[in-house]
């Protein structure tokens, strides 16, 4: 959850509208970004080290990259920055922040395309890192739900006798968190709230009820905090449930054709204008000789 982004869904929608209103419809913006969030997570799940295929991208890198992508397009339009380019920059930046060492050569090895395409992508990622960091307002540390999730599972094992096997929840929890990261919930709610929503949903799917654990154990000493928490968990579950009604891929393909035809050439590394602009920006950083 990012404090400066806002505390409710209306604020997120306002930011997206402001970023896109001069260029593109809400459908093109939100639908395209959601599709690229899916592609980001698919790319990360299929990522392999070219020298050792056993080395895979950790889930916390994927989560941070997803967070970056969603935040980037709160302030920028898909017509100015192609989501494909931003997606790969966010993933590579997340690898650095989460200390998952991967060279740019090894990274683009996983990017589909010819050797020239891979070289171009590598150059684009390295040239876009600083701008992406600036657009994220240098807030690069992302608090994730995985640590509070482990804490909840340990607490359930230690203090709640109504649940026979807390580890049995893990599969349903992971599925819930995967869907959760296709929504705005990580921008709106605290990691502990996301973790509790995942655990209670997983328990319900297995025919278990954790209400007494939440009320009698977890919040026994601070019942005044229970109502806001329950409200937050319900809203998180509604966001996740709505994931299935996302824009279909055929619609996204049509929208992407419009995007490719109208993309700002100053932010498209496949155009000459982009590289001229890069050179001009570099020259502007040089200190003139007295």
UniProtKB/TrEMBL annotation:
<comment type="similarity">
    <text>Belongs to the cyclin family. Cyclin C subfamily.</text>
</comment>
<dbReference type="InterPro" id="IPR013763">
    <property type="entry name" value="Cyclin-like_dom"/>
</dbReference>
<dbReference type="Pfam" id="PF00134">
    <property type="entry name" value="Cyclin_N"/>
</dbReference>
<protein>
    <recommendedName>
        <fullName>Cyclin-like domain-containing protein</fullName>
    </recommendedName>
</protein>
<dbReference type="InterPro" id="IPR006671">
    <property type="entry name" value="Cyclin_N"/>
</dbReference>
<keyword id="KW-0131">Cell cycle</keyword>
<dbReference type="Pfam" id="PF16899">
    <property type="entry name" value="Cyclin_C_2"/>
</dbReference>
<dbReference type="InterPro" id="IPR043198">
    <property type="entry name" value="Cyclin/Ssn8"/>
</dbReference>
<dbReference type="GO" id="GO:0016538">
    <property type="term" value="F:cyclin-dependent protein serine/threonine kinase regulator activity"/>
</dbReference>
<dbReference type="InterPro" id="IPR036915">
    <property type="entry name" value="Cyclin-like_sf"/>
</dbReference>
<keyword id="KW-0195">Cyclin</keyword>
<dbReference type="InterPro" id="IPR031658">
    <property type="entry name" value="Cyclin_C_2"/>
</dbReference>
<dbReference type="GO" id="GO:0006357">
    <property type="term" value="P:regulation of transcription by RNA polymerase II"/>
</dbReference>
<dbReference type="GO" id="GO:0005634">
    <property type="term" value="C:nucleus"/>
</dbReference>
<feature type="domain" description="Cyclin-like">
    <location>
        <begin position="38"/>
        <end position="127"/>
    </location>
</feature>
